[in-house]
Design brief:
The protein is elongated and about 105 Å long. The model has no long low-confidence stretch (mean pLDDT 97). The strands form five sheets. The protein has a 21-stranded parallel β-sheet that branches. It has a seven-stranded mixed β-sheet with strand order 5-4-1-6-10-7-11, sandwiched between helices. α2 links the parallel β4 and β5. The protein has two domains: 211 residues, Spore Coat Polysaccharide Biosynthesis Protein SpsA, Chain A (Alpha-Beta Complex), CATH 3.90.550; 187 residues, UDP N-Acetylglucosamine Acyltransferase, domain 1. By secondary structure, it is of the alpha/beta class. Helix content is 17%, strand content 33%. The protein binds uridine-diphosphate-N-acetylglucosamine and calcium ion. The site of uridine-diphosphate-N-acetylglucosamine (UD1) has 27 residues, from β1, α3 and β10.
Amino acid sequence: MLQVVILAAGQGKRMRSALPKVLQPLGGRTMLHHVIGAAQALAPQRIVVVVGHGAQAVRQRFANSGLVWAAQAQQLGTGHAVQQALPALSPDGVVLVLYGDVPRIRAETLRTLVDEAAPGALALLTQEVEDATGYGRIVRDTAGGVAAIVEDRDATDAQKALREINTGMLAAPARKLSGWLAAVSNANAQGEYYLTDIVSAAVAEGYPVATCHPHTETECLGVNSKLELARLERLLQMDHAKALLDAGVTLADPARLDVRGELSCGRDVSIDVNCLFEGRVVLGDGVRIGANCILKDATVGAGTEVLPFSLIEEASIGERARIGPYARIRPGTTLANEVHIGNFVEVKASQLGEASKANHLAYIGDSQVGARVNIGAGTITCNYDGAHKHRTVIEDDVHIGSDVQLVAPVTVGRGATVGAGATITKDVPPGELTVTEKKQVTRAGWKRPKK
Ligand code: UD1
Ligand code: CA
């Protein structure tokens, strides 16, 4: 049986932010979200999160997610923090301790750690690093066994020279952990109850202390500042880019891609520079995304091309369509196959049927547009009367000229043609040409005013 404790009570002063540290975003999700994800991959019986600074905000963010909360009112040290979780833990099985600000930790590494502890050992996740400054050092005896962890501030010069560091993450049988913690004191340089002091307690009673190492070099990096957060963000984005390249996606530049959520791609997808994908985005076979596009919670069908500087949000786009450049597709939009949406066209909460086109400068909102419809430049649906939104219906094979206003609610019948510049306030009959006539007048002899 496995239980997980995640320490997330620290303030993160160096972030200089009102947002609790573990709620800072990494890859579009909170840091804590990433840690919980790694923990959940091990299918633990429960996950207890120790909260203190910003506890309210953290709990709110993860309401109804099945987590157990433990409060640590004062941050008296990592040992004290784990102690606050003990009442919520069953004394059986193994407890795995994680940090809410070490977000890139991988489930496979945690599995190794838990497997080390399960037969009856205190298992530590340690790592050799170039610069161990600030970390707790793993002190080993002459036989190579772990003797203790010494915190940076309590270390002698000889201990400071040690390069094997404590990542902080560990696993141990629950019963042993609570016994050792009860005996931890705060007689040290920081006046804190150190979780790391349980190591010497275990050694003193001859209990096995095992070590294992992370699968990747950077997964144990913690975040204490915005600079460290930014570094981790780039590492995470490079992971996304590598996974996409491995899957056969063409990326113009793997360093200029941001995925804040999940991006899944079919075969032969290509993505130009500076694109941002948020939420859940699905790109079909052969989709091409131009430079500087933003797609959020969107589906794009096979063979569709999205040209540069387009923004697509909560929308579904069919196959072989062409979107942009400079198109804005807003939530609630469904575009069928072969639809063309051109530059400076905004579409909101509308459905467009197969092969319909709005190639320039248009606003289509709250509209149901049939197949093979052509919408001219400058045409807008006037869907809002200041209080309510109304729907516009444009049936199949309609041709709307340039600069037309369609004042909703209104229906344009199948096959109708609407002349340029019309202001349509009543339903348009099918198959006919409808215009609203404006007289062209020339005033002979008129003189331009002079300055
Ligand atoms: C800790 C380890 C150190 C290790 C390092 C790795 C101890 C005593 N030291 O040091 O050996 O090398 O992590 O980064 O454990 N926290 C609480 N409540 C507290 C104190 C901390 O929830 O009272 C949380 C923090 O929010 C953070 C984590 O525990 O997520 C680690 O705390 P931090 O103060 O950063 O530990 P270090 O001093 O870096
Ligand atoms: Ca500390």
